[in-house]
Design brief:
Length: 412
């Protein structure tokens, strides 16, 4: 217990917590170990607050995607490193036991399955054949079940009657225009009466979108691509399908080189500079030229300046920055009220990097009216005009992470 007391006395910010913990008469060894570990974690965050040399920065994609650089390549701000062109693949669950017309059980399902794990299936493809009736004799009218989705079969569970299918993302990012009138052999103005899908519906490649019967002839039109129906033109008789994606792109925000990448979208770069750890970060990861707030020019559009002030800012000064629009602001501390005013809503200090702000904010000390540490202030002052990378990611719960800045020593 005395060791724990000594550790706490070295960390003044934890004094209140120590009193609460140690005033209890019944304290278990497990609790002491837990507290000691936590203090050690806090202490490690306070060590090496400022470091020079090389640093590894993980800027991986959200999930497996396209990476456009290779190991050893040099990177600089603005270079596209990689992207996720599509949203994460959807996982579909086909539940066959819920189909009352089949009256399935695990044994019947196992016998009737026409697919296996790893198979690629199309919309309306037959995946189950229940040609046997209850007596075990083939029925005159076979009963089939066709897949409602397109994808890769990931798992089949005959006990629960489920099939899990993963979406295939081979979508065309260019619009596909189909001449429905020609395929149906009708006038352009008449195509709506035969369409099985409507405007803004999502369709899969191979899915039925129009159907017509005349003189015992069937005209069947299937989608030539997966995507959303964005236009139905009754003057031309056409239908347009487009996959409306919102790609996630990773651009470099620093000078350095790629040291690690893999097929899962991992991107790790090595950059040289002075790394300064902070206490809290809000807003997006960003970068720009480091500049003292007293020398910050008035600009109307988003600038590539990272402004710092060694003093706390007033509400009036913060509002002025909203107009001047820097990429980020580095200050020792702010009042929580001012930060809420800046964002427009209450912020989560445990996952603060997800907050939306007009510009990113780094608090080197925390909330309140706390002066900036002299060493941090000196490094910022001495490096005005240099490129600075700002990582706002903050986690104060599981997997503690502190925001940091890296002032680039050179552009190489």
């Amino acid at each position: 217990v005395n060791k724990v007391m000594n550790l706490y006395s070295e960390n003044e910010i934890m004094d209140d917590l120590v009193c609460d913990k140690l005033d209890e008469e019944e304290i278990h060894k497990e609790k002491i170990t837990e507290i000691t570990s936590y203090i050690s974690q806090i202490s490690s965050l306070k060590k090496n607050l400022i470091q020079g040399g090389s640093h590894l920065v993980d800027i991986s994609l959200l999930y497996a995607g396209n990476i456009y650089i290779k190991k050893g390549d040099k990177v600089e701000p603005g270079i596209l490193l990689g992207e996720n062109k599509y949203e994460p693949p959807k996982m579909y669950v086909i539940s066959l036991f819920g189909k009352s017309e089949f009256k399935l059980n695990s044994k019947l399902m196992e016998k009737g399955l026409m697919i296996k794990v790893g198979d690629k299936i199309e919309v309306d493809q037959k995946i189950l054949d229940l040609s046997l009736n209850k007596s075990g004799i083939f029925s005159a009218i076979p009963t089939y079940y066709n897949s409602p989705v397109r994808g890769i079969v990931e798992r089949i569970n005959c006990e629960s009657g489920t099939i899990i299918v993963r979406e295939i993302q081979d979508y065309s990012l260019e619009p596909v225009v189909m001449n429905i009138a020609k395929k149906l052999n009708v006038k352009p103005e008449n195509i709506r009466g035969y369409l099985k899908k409507k405007l803004h519906d999502f369709v899969y490649a191979g899915q039925l979108i129009a159907f017509r019967i005349e003189n015992n002839l069937s005209y069947i039109v299937k989608a030539e691509s997966s995507g959303t129906i964005t236009e139905i033109d009754t003057e031309k008789g056409t239908l347009t399908i487009k996959y409306q994606s919102k790609p996630f792109r990773r651009y470099s925000l620093f000078y350095g080189k790629l040291v690690e990448t893999d097929s899962n979208g991992r991107i790790v770069c090595e950059i040289k500079g002075i790394k300064i750890e902070a206490t809290l970060g809000y807003g997006r990861e960003t970068a720009g030229y480091l500049i003292d707030i007293n020398n910050f020019p008035e600009v109307s559009e988003k600038s590539n300046y990272v402004v710092f002030s060694s003093d706390c800012l007033s509400t009036e000064e913060l509002n002025k920055l909203r107009i001047n629009n820097p990429a980020a602001l580095i200050v020792p501390s702010l009042s929580e009220k001012d930060l809420i005013t800046l964002s427009g809503y209450e912020l989560d200090e445990h996952e603060s990097s997800f907050c939306e702000l007009p510009f990113s904010v780094i608090l080197t000390e925390g909330f309140g009216d706390i002066p900036m540490k002299g060493e941090i202030q000196k490094n910022l002052n001495d490096n005005c005009g240099k490129w600075i990378y700002v990582n706002t990611e903050t986690k104060n719960r599981t997997g503690v992470r502190k925001p940091y800045m890296i002032i680039q020593e050179s552009q190489a």
